[in-house]
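Thread: Newbie trying to understand structure tokens

Hi all, I'm a second-year student working on a class project, and my supervisor (Dr. K.) asked me to get a predicted structure for one chain before our next meeting. I've only ever worked with sequences, so writing a 3D structure as a token string is new to me. If someone could post the tokens and maybe explain what I'm looking at, I'd be very grateful. Here's the chain:
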Amino acid sequence: MNQEYPSMLLEKAVNEFSRLPGIGRKTAMRLVLHLLRQEIGVVEAFGHAMITLKHEVKYCKVCHNISDTEVCRICANPQRDGSTICVVENIRDVMAVEGTQQFRGLYHVLGGVISPMDGVGPGDLQIESLVDRVNRGGINEIILALSSTMEGDTTNFYIYRKLGETNVKLTVIARGISIGDELEYTDEVTLGRSIVNRIPFK
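---
Reply by user tm_fold:
Sure, no problem. This is what the structure looks like when written as tokens:
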């Protein structure tokens, strides 16, 4: 039997929140009721932030990370080491590596990993733009920091093959991360050690 709501507006709001990943209907109800208790200005600011994000967010033309401008803050920072690029699957992984405070290079966001089962091939990812960055010169090391899953390993190997003719050093993060683990769920200390103790990709 479906739960009956005292308000159609409440039900609609709960339905929208429950579309979010990892948010069940009980959590959605808690979030909606929490917002309902806030001042109107707080709720309007919340809604405005989401709408503005969707309309105005950009993707860095260099690394494909989320950005407010054409080139993201990390790529534009002269204090970062532009000769080292950490290749990650998604924007959440950039945030995970940044959280370790162990990496001062730049990033390259692929936008996923090769997964034939899900219909994702190399052409669906930002691999060619990575090759272009390497070919433009000035890059000494590529760190492959993809999740230690079959799809992540397949993508690592594909990139290795694409960059095999270059003089760029290819390394992979140390396996302090369990096989099958996704990068974003790894604790910062373990992830930081994996970045520092990276090993040559073979």
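A couple of things are worth pointing out once you decode it. The chain has a mean pLDDT of 87. The radius of gyration is 20 Å. Feel free to ask follow-ups in this thread.
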